[in-house]
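Go through this:
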Amino acid sequence: QVQLVESGGGLVQAGGSLRLSCVVSGSIFRPDDMGWYRQAPGKQRAMVATITSDGNTNYADSVKGRFTINRDNVKNSVYLQMNSLKPEDTAVYYCNALVRVLPGSRAYWGQGTQVTVSS
């Protein structure tokens, strides 16, 4: 059973930093694309950052220059370094991973971790 477990959320003041971590377990295959998404109250879940298996990244315009996504393929983990946080970054952050489930692939989600940025 594939599982994604996130950690690292919390409460931080505006201008501060947090680092989110996500570990994928339960698969013999290295995850393909991985990413972070967030959902603020009353809003739809939106992409924050994604990273391919060979390290190509993509960011939402609102976080470019402040957030950095990276991954450790040995540990089947993905990370999100968040700097210069703003109150509008407050949301539940979800880890996502595309995992091979033969004969195809399937997207899995973590349980979410709350990030709250106070002004």
About this structure: Residues 20 and 54 are 20 Å apart (CA to CA). The radius of gyration is 14 Å. The longest strand covers residues 91-101. The chain has no helices and eleven strands.
